[in-house]
Specification:
Length: about 500
């Protein structure tokens, strides 16, 4: 049985090249991606391996022991352009110079390429499968998908037998589906095409299976990269957004090398801080625990800690941890209390804090003075449609366009609403157009500011006071006078509608 391999599709390749701006790094990635070189072959390339006149690359296979085997590989146009850009920044005096050389002239190590891939994975979570050999897999896979013959791929990759080429060449499922369809579908006669046009055949039975919880990030890559970058700089971050926009989802996908403390219950603050201290004592700081409380066991220590004030507990946590040793993740601080504000003000300069909120009242925003605020909005239409596709890829739907548009209109791009609507429609045995349009969601109704319309209406009614004198209608004068009074005091009424949250 062939093992499942990892590779990048065309779209991911394009996004990867857009993300990497350094010409040196782009060349290294493109050499493995377009020429199928192993990472060891890539780092040992010399200038004499290139023939720019014929736009080709000759490489000695490092896997062939006991014999010297060379293979000649064409250079793609985008790799040629990247090499030209890179060679402008370096000066090679002789053909024996290594293409990717250190300051001492020796070639860079394989670890340097691995570290580059790791950095890209941390900055761009969509490249979770990225590693040097995945780029080699990508070359083989895209060659096969483009119609290349097996022996051609074998030559480019430098394999000695076809079995290895088969293992390294993963055929995309869509390509296989097209080929199987072309093999099995019979040619339809003109009479049958006309008949099917006027009397369409019923579609085959629909097979729907349950969908697993989403473990992917759609439309939030930019925000996730920004949060990851700020955490790496030890900056405090708060994600602000309406319910269901994916704030917690971003926290769950946060990738960092630092240790993490997570507060999931910020209402019972003393209990949370006590559990945090006990966690630090038992796991990371056991020797400190023995020094502080030699006469207590953990059960007695917990009772002892419960008697301490919140600020003292915070100071104790700070004392037994080093600055920025931990990333402190707080799931939600919507209903933060004055005691919670004091706690965050005490901890915000010692931990890198990442938290979320739908909104924070202005009167409670003092703890946010050194926080970077990231607004999380509903998904835009392209990202929302991608999310709908990812959640419903396994469903057979009679009218896919109606399905997508209905969910988009009902959700307004709210990821949680999208997920709930897809899960609700999944319960239908047959997803017909009637079933789609009959299911609605009221969790993401848009809010509209009616202040201007109210003022305009009152102004129009106030005009009646002056118009009544022309037509001699006293009732209109009374209505206009009431509207005038309401209009005069409307600014005090609308003060209550002023923004009170950030």
């Amino acid at each position: 049985m062939f093992k499942e391999i990892q590779f990048l599709d065309k779209r991911q390749c394009e996004r990867l090249l857009q993300a990497v701006t350094n010409p040196r790094h782009r060349c290294a990635l493109l050499i493995m991606m377009d020429c199928g070189l192993r990472v060891s072959e890539c780092v040992n390339l010399q200038m004499k391996n290139f023939d720019f006149k014929t736009r080709s690359l000759s490489v000695k296979s490092l896997k062939k022991r006991g014999q010297e085997v060379w293979r000649k590989i064409p250079i793609s146009d985008r790799l040629y352009s990247c090499l030209a850009e890179y060679l402008k920044t370096v000066k090679f005096k002789n053909p024996d110079n290594f293409l990717f050389a250190k300051k001492d002239g020796n070639p860079i190590s394989r670890k340097a390429i691995n570290r580059l891939c790791e950095r890209l994975k941390q900055r761009y979570p969509e490249f979770s499968n990225l590693h040097p050999h995945a780029l080699r897999h990508t070359c083989a896979t895209q060659l096969l998908a483009s119609g290349a013959q097996l022996h051609e791929i074998k030559t480019i990759l430098g394999h000695t037998n076809y079995d290895t080429t088969l293992i390294y060449t993963h055929i995309p499922q869509e390509v296989l589906r097209k080929r199987i369809t072309a093999m099995t579908v019979q040619k339809v006669s003109l009479f049958k095409r006309v008949k099917n046009y006027f009397f369409p055949e019923t579609k085959p039975s629909i097979i729907n299976i349950s969908n697993e919880a989403s473990q992917f990030v759609v439309g939030r890559s930019e925000e996730l990269v920004k949060v990851t970058d700020l955490v790496s700089k030890n900056c405090n971050v708060i994600l602000i957004g309406a319910i269901g926009v994916g704030k917690t989802h971003i926290l769950n996908h946060l990738s960092t090398d630092k240790k993490i403390l997570r507060f999931d219950d910020f209402s019972d603050l003393k209990k949370t801080l006590t559990q945090c201290l006990l966690y630090l004592y038992k796991n990371d700081k056991e020797h400190v625990f023995n020094l502080l409380y030699p006469e207590y066991d953990l059960a007695k220590a917990q009772q002892h800690l419960q008697k301490d004030s919140v600020i003292n507990l915070c100071k104790e946590i700070k004392r037994i941890t080093t600055r920025y040793e931990y990333v402190l993740i707080i799931d939600n601080c919507d209903r933060i209390t004055p005691k919670g504000i004091k706690t965050l003000e005490e901890l915000k300069d010692h931990f890198c804090i990442v938290t979320t909120a739908r909104e924070v009242q202005v009167t409670k925003s003092s703890f946010l003075w050194n926080f970077e605020t990231i607004k999380i909005e509903n998904l835009k239409r392209p990202s929302c449609l991608e999310l709908i596709h990812r959640l419903s890829y396994d469903l057979e739907i009679n009218d896919s366009e109606l399905f997508r548009n209905h969910i988009w209109e009902q959700s307004s791009g709210n990821p949680r609403v999208v997920f709930e609507l897809v899960e609700r429609l999944r319960k239908e045995s047959v997803i017909t157009p009637d079933a789609i349009t009959s299911i609605r969601h009221f969790g993401s109704l848009r809010e509209y500011d009616m202040s201007f319309i109210v003022i305009l209406a009152l102004t129009g009614m106030a005009v009646l006071r002056y118009l009544s004198g022309e037509i001699g209608n006293d009732s209109m004068r009374f209505i206009g006078g009431c509207a005038m009074i309401l209009l005069i005091f409307s600014r005090y009424v609308f003060n209550f509608t002023k923004r009170k949250v950030i």
